Amino acid sequence: PQVTYYNFRGEVYPDWAKFGLTRSNGARGHQGIDIFALPGTDVYAVLDGKIVDMYVDKKGYGLNLYLEVDPKELEKIKRKNYNPNTMQIKYIRYCHLSKVNVKIGDTVKAGQVIAKTGTTGNASGTHAPHVHFEIAFEMRGKGLTNRVDPEMYFKIKNGNQMTKQEIKIQTEAAKTEWFEPKGYDIGFRDKSIFLEKKDDLHKNEKIIDKAKNDKNLKKADLKKVKRK
Fold first, then answer.
1. How far apart are CA 157 and CA 150, in angstroms?
2. What's CA 35's distance to the chain center, in Å?
3. Is 139 within 8 Å of 66 (Cβ atoms)?
4. pTM (2 decimals)?
5. 80 Rama sector, left if φ>0, alpha if ψ -120 to 50, beta otherwise
6. What is the arithmetic mean of pLDDT over 39-47?
């Protein structure tokens, strides 16, 4: 696998694809790494695991899914030149997909085809088709919060490591402006299942608080009546 040699606009900018403060001259973070892939390319499970979330983020990561893995298995493949983390990493995220072969709750094996790459979400109109690939402690947090560099675990070619042929293939791909397919979002939820659970929790908390307030108001009214 290799990073995208070009950025969204079709300019040579391989660092744009990398993890960290690589956007807007270091002012904006990139949560994962962009791996070059023409739309419709097979996406594989990198480890055994379970699909725990899947939804469409039209303004961001398009059709995306989270694979929950055993942190111990992920640690086994960590590159030796990186220091160990204090937190357990357990989520792998794949974004901008066009199709999925799995559903929430499915268990998958390493090497199993689980989806097809695409240009959904804010990748629509790009000159650098890719799968956005993340590794996370938790499935929340903006910017680099709760995320780690995928290159800590996986060998991914950077711009200065690519062959002339690989650059040529990406150069040809960059001549096209790739748009998301119509109807890819049909049948999918529009936000994370975990956000929905959180929203439901907040609703329940509000209902409980309202009930407590109503009960307290009734008690206060009874005291007033007794005083009279």
1. 12
2. 13
3. yes
4. 0.84
5. alpha
6. 98
